[in-house]
Every structure is written in C-alpha cells, then in structure tokens.
C-alpha cells in the first residue's frame, strides 16, 4: 500500500500532462527535425549505416524527452506556479515528477513510432533488435526524464536553464555514438561511450545488427551501466521530488 | 471545543541565499485559525504573508517554530496535511493549453474524485466563477482576470477542509471579486476554513471574520475589522478642506492628520455636531464618512514603521 500512497494521483496527473502536451502539436511535429536531417546526411553519405542511424534516432528522440520534461517542469514551477497547486494536494510528489514524465512520453510517442515505422520499412527490424530497443529505450527515458526533473528544480529563471539543457542533451545525445557505430571508437573513448546511457543503449541495439560489435564483457558493461544509471537516477529523482516539494 | 484549523507557534523563517545577505521573512509568527473561519492576513509587500502561507501549506520548511493543520504538524507529517488543503498560489496561472473546464476537471481527478463527481463540481465551480461562457476556450486565450478566476474555481471545486488563498482576486474586476466572495462565504457555510492574503482592504473587511496585520515578519495586531477600526479613536472620519483646516484648530475633536491637501479628523458620533458647527464657523468644508479598515491598517503599520525608524 505504501507504493500506492507514494504514487497517489499518478494516473490522473499523467493524463493532465499528456493533455497539456498534446496541444503542442507544432512542437511534437518538429521534434524530428534534427533526426531527419542527420538521417538524410547518412542516407547520402553512408547508406550502409542507415540502420544504425535510424535506431539511433529513435534512442535520441527518447533521450530528448528529458529536455522536454526539464523545460515543462521548470515552466510550470517558475512561470505558472502550478507546482504549488499540485504539491499542496493529495497528489504525491513522486507522482508529480513521474506524471510529468509519462505525460510528455505519451504525447511524443507518435513521432517515435513514426521513426520505428520508418526503420521497419527501410531496413527491417528483427524481434531481438526490437526487444532490445524497447528495453534500452526504457532505460534511456527513465534516465533522461529523471535528470530533466532534478535539473528543473535547481533554477529560478527559465532563461538560465536553456543553455544547460542544450549543452547536456547534445553533448550526451549527439556527440557519443548514438547515430554512428560504436565500432568507430576504441580504447578509453569506447569504454566511456559504453558508460553514457544513450550511447550504451545504442551500442546494445547495434550489437544485434552486426556480429562482433561488442565483446560479451562490453555488452555486459553497457547493459549494467544503463540499468544502474537509469535506476539510480530514477531513485534520486523520486527522493528529490519528495525533498523539493518543500523548499528549504 | 473544535480543533483549530491552523495553529502556528513562533514561526521563524530566514532565507539563506548564496552570495546574498540572509533575509528574515518571519520572526516569530503565532496565530490561530478556528475551524470554519475566514481569516485574512494583511500586510505590506514583503511583510511575510506569502511565506507564512507557504509554510502552513507544506510548501516551505520553517527555520524554527511549528504549524499544525487540524492537529497535524506540517513539518513532520506533510502527507497527512496535503489531502486536507487546497492552495491558490500568488500569481498562479492555469495550464495555458487546457481550457478552464479541463483544468478544474483534471485537477479534481488528480485529487481522487470520481469522474461523475468531478464533472458535477467542475460545472458548479465554473458557474460560480462565471466562466461557463469561456469554459471551453484554451486558457492562453483568456484575460488575466479570467485565468485568475480559473485558479480560484479549481480550488473551490475541491471544497477542501482548509483553503489557502494568496491574493485570490488580484486582477479581477469588482463584479468578479464579489463573485469570489460569495463563493468563499458559501464554502465556509459548508464547513471549509479559509486563510487568505489580500491587499484589497475592502475585501478583507467584507470577507474575513478576523484578520491579522503582519509587518516585517511579525503579527502587529489581530482582531475583527470593526475592532481594528475602533482602535483608530472613533468610527467617523471627517475630511476638512479650507485655509482654517489645521491640526491645531481641529485636534481637540479627535486624531487629526493632513493628507492629500485635506485635514482628516477621526472622531466619535457624539462629538460630530460640535465639530461640524465649529467647521461652519471657520468656513471650512466638511465631508463625513465612516472610518475604513484602510485607515486602521495605515495607522497600525505606520506606527510600527515609525517605531522601527
């Protein structure tokens, strides 16, 4: 029962946030612009890597949801002061955080499904790849949304958040091997990439496309790193949500 | 004796901000709001009203002291307090991409109301706030006053045992404000308790059973608006204009002070005829009206400022 109390109001608040996000159809529609441009480049310059890039674009889209959670949480706290309305109510603080994250996820599923559909049509999607994409994507979403929520509570000015958000999500979403094969990296850079959630997820998915992408120990490292980082970040966000429901 | 809805003891709040001097927002506030009461917190900007409301509504931790809501300590058991309260935050806005109907309805669902009940309460609250006509327009298209009414509708629809309203009628026209007053009165008749802040002293007077005047983080005075007005030295205010209208000439009739080109004298009904005939003899124009809460507020807070300086 403790879990039910801890996440009291989650379903209704997720629904509320989804409803809010669903009105942002322009934002939802344009959420694929970066991915589409990168895919176009890959299609022209290295068509053999299109499968990697397509799956990477799905994972990047999921990772970028963290930025949307961050902006939304900060906006409704700093500009609307709606956090006060919701947090001083039976809605559990952790349900407030998770509800925001789920609402954003559901609203942006359509473009993500579009990319998955494009992958199936253009390069095909084996069941193992699909399963790993789902699991790895879930880990990336949990990690990114948790980071987004925690960071959103640290600022008092919306404009101060934007540069950090852009830096974080591009640095960890575009720079490491998410859109390109992890095989292009070696040594410590390769190990580092296996520790960064989006590229760890991409490496796991890439390992189902071609042989010898990852050694068994590298596969284990990426899987454990992703699971531990997503799990611990989620736990931190839950604790943080409880703590930040009351300012110090 | 019913349990107090809010009971605060020596609440202090000091804000520590990195790179900025610490700010004492509350320096020992003690107050009590009884169940079913409407109580107003009055004070200048920065007096500590919002800080107190945030502490009492579990949104802010006090530096010391404690607040209980229906017997639950807000610091130790905020989870017990939250189902009992609802808050209209200062300068709060509804979700821009929800309609007023969606805002109220989804908020009620979030609080655990069943759909049918949430729908009924939504319609009722929107009607009370005269938002029915714009109930299905996105809030982003509404005026500031309509958005504020949406916030109030969201909270009154809960009929929570205790409502905290931080400047609930800011930006509203006089008709809308009176609509809010009527709804709040109706809520307390049903058993809710209301603690509100406002800068509209006519609102505090019309709405509150009791009020507290807060200045620089402490309670200066509490009581009814009538009691506060009586403390100014009389129930009537005579405004005198003319060259002979000086404090020296009229000071014997009551407290006399110049303001905006006129002399104001606070006096009693018993002394009024004598004052008016004296004014007539001095060829001074006189206008008589009741002492207002604003007058009492200015006197209480002004005296405190003078003492501090």
At a glance:
By secondary structure, chain A is mainly alpha-helical. Chain A has helices at residues 2-6, 10-22, 25-29, 33-45, 50-78, 82-87, 93-107, 109-122, 127-152, 158-173, 187-195, 197-206, 216-244.
Descriptive overview:
The complex is a heterodimer of chains A (about 250) and B (about 300). Chain A has about 250 residues and is mainly α. Chain A is built from 13 helices and no strands. In chain A, helix 5 runs parallel beside helix 9 (about 125-150) and helix 9 (about 125-150) packs antiparallel against helix 12. Chain B has 11 helices and 14 strands. Chain B has helices at about 50-55, 80, 100-110, 115-130, 145-155, 175-190, 200-205, 225-230, 245-250, 270-280, 295-309, and strands at about 5-15, 25-35, 40-45, 65-70, 70-75, 85-90, 160-165, 195, 210-215, 220-225, 235-240, 255-260, 260-265, 285-290. In chain B, the strands form 3 sheets. Chain B has a 6-stranded mixed beta sheet with strand order 6-7-8-3-9-10, sandwiched between helices. In chain B, helix 5 runs parallel beside helix 6 (about 175-190). Chain B starts with 5 loop residues before the first strand and ends with a helix.
> Given this structure, which CATH class of the largest domain in chain B is correct?
Alpha Beta
Q: What fraction, in percent, of the residue positions of chain B are helical? A: 25-40%
Domain count of chain A = 1
Q: What about the largest sheet of chain B?
A: 6 strands, mixed
Reading side by side through the largest sheet of chain B, how are the strands ordered? Answer: 6-7-8-3-9-10
Q: How many strand units of chain A?
A: 0
What oligomeric state is this? heterodimer
* 3D shape of chain A: globular
% residues in beta strands of chain A: under 5%
Number of strands of chain B: 14
Beginning-to-end CA distance, first to last residue of chain A = 28 Å
Shape of chain B: globular
Number of domains of chain B: 2
Mean pLDDT over all positions of chain A? 94
Q: Which class of secondary structure composition applies to the elements of chain A?
A: mainly alpha
Radius of gyration of chain A: 18 Å
| Helix-strand sequence of chain B | EEEHEEHEHHHEHEHEEHEHEEHEH
Largest sheet of chain A: none
Q: Ranges of chain B with pLDDT <50 over ≥5 residues?
A: none
CATH topology of the largest domain in chain B: Rossmann fold
Give the DSSP E fraction of chain B (strand runs of 2 or more residues). Answer: 25-35%
């Amino acid at each position: 029962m403790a879990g039910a109390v801890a996440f009291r109001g989650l379903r209704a608040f997720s629904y509320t946030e989804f409803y809010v996000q669903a009105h942002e159809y322009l934002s939802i529609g344009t959420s694929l612009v970066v991915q589409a441009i990168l895919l176009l480049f890959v299609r022209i310059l290295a068509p053999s890597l299109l499968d990697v890039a397509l799956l990477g674009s799905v994972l990047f889209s999921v990772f970028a949801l963290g930025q949307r959670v961050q902006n939304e949480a900060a906006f409704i706290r700093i500009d609307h002061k709606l956090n006060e309305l919701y947090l001083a109510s039976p809605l559990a603080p952790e349900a407030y955080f998770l509800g925001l994250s789920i609402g954003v996820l559901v609203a942006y599923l359509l473009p993500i499904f579009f990319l998955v559909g494009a992958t199936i049509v253009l390069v095909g999607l084996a069941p193992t790849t699909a399963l790993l994409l789902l699991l790895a994507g879930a880990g990336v979403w949990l990690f990114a949304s948790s980071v987004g929520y925690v960071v959103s509570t640290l600022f008092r000015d919306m404009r101060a958040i934007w540069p950090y958000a852009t830096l974080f999500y591009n640095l960890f979403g575009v720079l490491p091997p998410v859109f390109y094969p992890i095989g292009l990296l070696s040594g410590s850079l390769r190990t580092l990439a296996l520790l960064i959630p989006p590229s760890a997820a991409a490496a796991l998915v890439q390992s189902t496309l071609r042989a010898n992408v990852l050694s068994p120990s590298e596969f284990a490292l990426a899987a454990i790193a992703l699971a531990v980082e997503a799990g611990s970040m989620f736990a931190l966000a839950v604790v943080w949500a409880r703590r930040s429901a009351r300012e110090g | 004796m019913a349990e107090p809805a809010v009971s605060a003891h020596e609440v202090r709040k000091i804000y520590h901000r990195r790179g900025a001097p610490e700010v004492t927002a509350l320096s020992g506030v003690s107050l009590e709001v009884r169940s079913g009461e409407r109580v107003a917190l009055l004070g200048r900007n920065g007096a500590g009203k919002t800080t107190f409301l945030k502490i009492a509504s579990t949104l802010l931790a006090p530096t010391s002291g404690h607040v209980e809501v229906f017997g639950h300590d807000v610091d130790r058991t905020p989870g017990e307090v939250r189902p009992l309260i609802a808050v209209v935050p200062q300068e709060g806005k509804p979700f821009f991409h929800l309609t007023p109907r969606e805002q109220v309805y989804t908020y009620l669902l979030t609080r655990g109301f069943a759909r049918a009940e949430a729908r009924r309460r939504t319609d009722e609250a929107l009607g009370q706030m005269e938002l029915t006509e714009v109930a299905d327009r996105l809030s982003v298209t509404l005026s500031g006053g309509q958005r504020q009414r949406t916030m109030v509708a969201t909270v009154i629809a809960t009929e929570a045992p205790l409502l905290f309203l931080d400047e609930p009628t800011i930006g509203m026209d006089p008709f809308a404000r009176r609509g809010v007053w009527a709804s709040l009165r109706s809520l307390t008749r049903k058993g809710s308790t209301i603690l509100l802040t406002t800068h509209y002293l006519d609102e505090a007077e019309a709405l509150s059973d009791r009020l507290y005047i807060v200045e620089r983080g402490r309670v200066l005075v509490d009581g009814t608006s009538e009691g506060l007005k009586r403390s100014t030295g009389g129930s009537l205010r005579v405004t005198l204009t003319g060259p002979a209208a000086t404090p020296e000439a009229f000071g014997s009739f009551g407290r006399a002070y110049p303001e905006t080109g006129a002399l104001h004298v606070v006096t009693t009904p018993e002394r009024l005829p004598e004052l008016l005939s004296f004014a007539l003899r001095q060829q001074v124009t006189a206008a008589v009206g009741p002492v207002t809460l604003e007058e009492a507020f200015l006197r209480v807070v002004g005296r405190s400022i003078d003492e501090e300086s």
